[in-house]
UniProtKB/TrEMBL annotation:
UspA domain span: 1-131, 138-276
Superkingdom field: Bacteria
PANTHER family recorded: STRESS RESPONSE PROTEIN NHAX, UNIVERSAL STRESS PROTEIN UP12
Lineage: Bacteria, Pseudomonadati, Pseudomonadota, Alphaproteobacteria, Rhodobacterales
Annotated transmembrane regions: none
Record family assignment: Belongs to the universal stress protein A family.
CDD domains given in the database record: USP-like
Protein's recorded name: Universal stress protein
Length: 277
């Protein structure tokens, strides 16, 4: 049950969407809401002194309008934006952290982590990255699954946030040895059939061994890269949310972020919820 939601905002239009979704979730679940805004302490002191009171006033007015009727508080502060956010998450221990999408930076995005990637990597708190407008509750959720505890936790949290939403599990099949199967259609078909059979067995064991939502549909097994298949399925199904584990079975170390989570956070097809087991 979501009892306390923290939403980080830089007062940009991207962050406004995150605030709107956080407010909608807080209303639906009767949760407390904290709105956090961090002024970067790398700015000159005279600039900070000038804009800090104005920014705080704007944040308070914005919160009073957006979160009217909710149990909320505003948290204006100064510091390194990512480190300060992580400190607050550690102190508050929220049920959910909500962020907007990052500002695209063609060169830098290929060289270093985005804020959401770093936050997900360094905290145990589930993170919801909001891309779309929060006009209504989620009604269709794609659950990226490799049948790992982390993916299962994300799926169940997605259901808790939107219990009436249809849930579509997606397990992408990547055929790593397809090139070694020769040019024979028969050989490629045999390889694909073997992987499909293994995936169906894993799916059956997963369903038998876990308490999963009753709204969970049949698992889809598209062939190809996970991000590409989720992106395609999200558009075809008009899903508003994708859930995924922070890491798969092979990369369960807390300091690691799985390749799918990394790709989803860098280029989300829709809203994305990342959680750990």
């Amino acid at each position: 049950m979501t009892k306390h939601i923290v939403v980080a905002t830089d007062l940009s239009p991207r962050a406004d969407r995150a605030v709107a979704r956080a407010v909608l979730l807080a209303r639906e679940h009767g949760a407390r809401l904290s709105l956090l805004h961090v002024l970067d302490d790398a700015m000159p002191d005279d600039v900070l002194r000038h804009i800090q009171p104005r920014t705080t006033e704007h944040l308070e007015r914005f919160a009073a309008s957006a979160a009217k009727g909710l149990d909320y508080k505003v948290l204006p502060c100064v510091g390194d934006p990512t480190e300060t956010l992580l400190d607050w998450v550690g102190d508050l221990s929220p049920s959910l952290l909500v962020l907007g999408t990052h500002r695209p930076r063609t060169l830098m995005d290929g060289l270093r982590e985005t804020t959401s990637q770093r936050v997900v990597r360094l905290t145990n708190c589930p993170v919801l990255v909001v891309k779309e407008r929060a006009d209504q509750p989620y009604d269709t959720i794609l659950a990226a699954t490799d049948f790992s505890p982390s993916a299962t936790a994300a799926l169940n949290l997605g259901h808790a946030l939107a219990p009436k939403a249809a849930m579509i599990p997606v397990h992408a099949l990547y055929l790593p040895y397809e090139g070694l199967a020769g040019h024979s259609d028969q050989a490629r078909h045999a390889l694909h059939a073997a992987m499909i059979a293994d995936a169906h067995t894993a799916d059956a064991q997963w369903r038998a061994g876990h308490a999963l939502p009753v709204t969970l549909g049949h698992t889809q097994f598209p062939t190809g890269g996970a991000w590409m298949q989720l992106n395609r399925t999200a558009h075809e199904s008009r899903a508003q949310l994708i859930t995924a584990g922070a890491h798969g079975r092979a990369g369960a170390h807390r300091a690691l972020l799985g390749s799918l989570a990394t790709d989803l956070l860098r280029d989300p097809p829709c809203d994305v919820l990342i959680a750990r087991a």
